[in-house]
Amino acid sequence: LLVGVPDAAMHHSGTPFAYANAGDTACTLKGYPVFVLYDESGAPLSAITQSNETSGYLFSSTGIETVILDPGEVAGFGIELLSSTDDTPCKDFSTIAAFPPGADPTTANRGLVSLSWGGTYCGSMTVLPIREGALSQSDY
Predict the structure, then answer these.
(1) Looking only at Cα atoms, what is the longest distance across the chain?
(2) Cβ(53)–Cβ(128) under 8 Å?
(3) How far apart are CA 127 and CA 125, in angstroms?
(4) pLDDT above 70 covers what percent of the chain?
(5) pTM for the full predicted model
(6) Neighbours of 106 (CB within 10 A)
(7) CA 74 to each of CA 8, 19, 99: distance values in angstroms, whole numbers, following the listed order
Protein backbone atom coordinates (compact mmCIF):
# COMPACT_ATOMS: atom_id res chain seq x y z
CA LEU A 1 0.00 0.00 0.00
CA LEU A 2 1.36 3.40 -1.02
CA VAL A 3 0.14 6.87 -0.02
CA GLY A 4 0.19 9.99 -2.19
CA VAL A 5 0.08 13.69 -1.47
CA PRO A 6 -3.08 14.77 0.38
CA ASP A 7 -5.17 17.83 -0.39
CA ALA A 8 -7.81 19.66 1.66
CA ALA A 9 -10.64 22.18 1.27
CA MET A 10 -13.85 23.13 3.10
CA HIS A 11 -13.63 20.53 5.91
CA HIS A 12 -12.63 17.80 3.40
CA SER A 13 -9.24 16.09 3.32
CA GLY A 14 -8.51 13.84 0.37
CA THR A 15 -5.66 11.37 0.06
CA PRO A 16 -4.72 9.21 -2.93
CA PHE A 17 -3.55 5.65 -2.26
CA ALA A 18 -2.30 2.88 -4.51
CA TYR A 19 -1.78 -0.84 -4.39
CA ALA A 20 1.57 -1.95 -5.84
CA ASN A 21 1.85 -5.51 -7.10
CA ALA A 22 5.15 -6.69 -5.62
CA GLY A 23 4.40 -10.32 -6.48
CA ASP A 24 5.34 -12.51 -9.41
CA THR A 25 1.85 -12.94 -10.87
CA ALA A 26 -0.95 -10.64 -11.97
CA CYS A 27 -3.96 -10.01 -9.76
CA THR A 28 -7.41 -8.63 -10.53
CA LEU A 29 -9.11 -5.86 -8.55
CA LYS A 30 -12.57 -4.36 -8.98
CA GLY A 31 -14.59 -2.07 -6.78
CA TYR A 32 -13.85 -0.35 -3.51
CA PRO A 33 -11.16 -1.07 -0.92
CA VAL A 34 -12.37 -1.58 2.64
CA PHE A 35 -10.70 0.99 4.91
CA VAL A 36 -10.13 0.43 8.61
CA LEU A 37 -8.70 3.09 10.91
CA TYR A 38 -6.73 1.85 13.95
CA ASP A 39 -5.87 3.65 17.19
CA GLU A 40 -2.40 3.68 18.78
CA SER A 41 -3.02 0.32 20.49
CA GLY A 42 -3.88 -1.33 17.14
CA ALA A 43 -7.61 -1.58 17.82
CA PRO A 44 -10.01 -0.61 15.01
CA LEU A 45 -11.97 2.58 15.61
CA SER A 46 -15.63 1.88 16.16
CA ALA A 47 -18.60 3.56 14.47
CA ILE A 48 -16.70 4.47 11.29
CA THR A 49 -18.97 4.55 8.26
CA GLN A 50 -17.47 4.06 4.80
CA SER A 51 -19.42 5.53 1.90
CA ASN A 52 -18.44 4.18 -1.53
CA GLU A 53 -18.80 6.80 -4.27
CA THR A 54 -17.50 7.26 -7.82
CA SER A 55 -16.56 10.90 -7.10
CA GLY A 56 -16.03 13.15 -4.11
CA TYR A 57 -15.77 16.76 -3.11
CA LEU A 58 -12.05 16.79 -3.94
CA PHE A 59 -11.74 13.89 -6.39
CA SER A 60 -13.15 13.84 -9.90
CA SER A 61 -15.32 11.01 -11.17
CA THR A 62 -13.81 7.52 -11.41
CA GLY A 63 -15.83 4.68 -12.89
CA ILE A 64 -15.84 1.16 -11.54
CA GLU A 65 -13.60 -1.01 -13.70
CA THR A 66 -11.80 -4.33 -13.55
CA VAL A 67 -8.09 -3.68 -13.11
CA ILE A 68 -5.56 -6.35 -14.00
CA LEU A 69 -2.48 -5.51 -11.99
CA ASP A 70 0.66 -7.06 -13.48
CA PRO A 71 3.82 -7.39 -11.36
CA GLY A 72 5.36 -3.96 -10.76
CA GLU A 73 2.20 -2.02 -11.72
CA VAL A 74 0.03 0.13 -9.45
CA ALA A 75 -3.71 0.70 -9.11
CA GLY A 76 -4.93 3.90 -7.47
CA PHE A 77 -7.91 4.95 -5.36
CA GLY A 78 -8.69 7.74 -2.95
CA ILE A 79 -10.40 8.52 0.32
CA GLU A 80 -11.91 11.71 1.64
CA LEU A 81 -12.46 12.42 5.30
CA LEU A 82 -15.05 15.06 6.14
CA SER A 83 -14.71 16.92 9.40
CA SER A 84 -18.07 17.30 11.08
CA THR A 85 -19.34 20.78 11.73
CA ASP A 86 -21.49 19.66 14.65
CA ASP A 87 -20.51 18.27 18.05
CA THR A 88 -19.50 14.83 16.74
CA PRO A 89 -16.62 13.58 18.90
CA CYS A 90 -13.37 13.18 17.01
CA LYS A 91 -11.23 10.03 17.10
CA ASP A 92 -7.50 9.93 16.49
CA PHE A 93 -6.01 7.13 14.40
CA SER A 94 -2.39 6.18 13.86
CA THR A 95 -2.64 3.39 11.28
CA ILE A 96 -4.81 2.89 8.24
CA ALA A 97 -5.46 -0.30 6.30
CA ALA A 98 -7.01 -0.61 2.83
CA PHE A 99 -8.16 -4.19 2.33
CA PRO A 100 -8.86 -5.29 -1.25
CA PRO A 101 -12.52 -5.54 -2.32
CA GLY A 102 -14.14 -8.64 -0.90
CA ALA A 103 -11.61 -9.09 1.92
CA ASP A 104 -12.85 -9.55 5.48
CA PRO A 105 -10.85 -7.12 7.66
CA THR A 106 -11.55 -9.18 10.77
CA THR A 107 -9.70 -12.22 9.36
CA ALA A 108 -7.40 -10.85 6.62
CA ASN A 109 -3.71 -10.16 7.20
CA ARG A 110 -3.30 -6.39 7.35
CA GLY A 111 0.50 -6.44 7.08
CA LEU A 112 0.78 -5.60 3.37
CA VAL A 113 -2.24 -3.30 3.19
CA SER A 114 -1.57 -1.01 6.14
CA LEU A 115 0.48 2.12 6.77
CA SER A 116 1.50 4.13 9.78
CA TRP A 117 -0.52 7.13 8.73
CA GLY A 118 -2.33 9.13 11.35
CA GLY A 119 -5.04 11.70 11.53
CA THR A 120 -8.36 12.52 13.07
CA TYR A 121 -11.76 11.16 12.10
CA CYS A 122 -14.66 13.47 12.96
CA GLY A 123 -17.44 12.88 10.46
CA SER A 124 -17.55 10.66 7.41
CA MET A 125 -15.27 8.72 5.07
CA THR A 126 -15.82 8.50 1.30
CA VAL A 127 -13.88 5.89 -0.69
CA LEU A 128 -13.38 6.03 -4.46
CA PRO A 129 -13.07 2.88 -6.60
CA ILE A 130 -9.81 1.28 -7.70
CA ARG A 131 -8.56 2.30 -11.14
CA GLU A 132 -5.52 1.67 -13.34
CA GLY A 133 -2.43 3.67 -12.42
CA ALA A 134 -1.73 6.04 -9.58
CA LEU A 135 -3.91 9.10 -8.97
CA SER A 136 -2.36 12.46 -9.90
CA GLN A 137 -3.12 16.13 -9.30
CA SER A 138 -5.43 16.09 -12.33
CA ASP A 139 -7.69 13.68 -10.42
CA TYR A 140 -8.51 16.38 -7.85
Answers:
(1) 49
(2) yes
(3) 7
(4) 91
(5) 0.87
(6) 8
(7) 24, 5, 15
